[in-house]
Amino acid sequence: MSGKVTFGNKPLAGGGSIRFVPLDRSGKAAGGTIGESGEYSLSTYGADDGAIHGAHRVEIIQNVIIEPAVFPVPAEGSEPQDLQPTKAEVSVVEGDRIPESYGSSESPLRATVEDTDQNTFDFSLERTP
Known about the structure:
By secondary structure, the protein is mainly beta. It has one domain. Helices cover 0% and strands 33% of the residues. The chain has strands at 2-7, 10-11, 16-22, 30-34, 39-41, 54-62, 65-66, 90-91, 110-113, 123-125.
């Protein structure tokens, strides 16, 4: 089970996370990571196994600050050099940030998962949900 998240007709800046929460609260929520391309896949009990069948509220949380990559670790016995992060911290500009309501229990997003292997859900987010 997979899909794509866009905002302003572009992949979700910074990536993020997505959750499918059963509306009837009868089962476990599924979650996944939204990559830089906006694509995601869901896992509930195991890697990429999708979400349980039924109606879900969809919550999307955007990464608005991306931490720098970890410092490289020097080989054992060698002297540490001028260690710098492998990437700098990045912030998503205000105009590319989605409304926080998409990531809460008040999210207006819904999806119904059918008993099939062909479940794909794309979400085109708006400035005003």
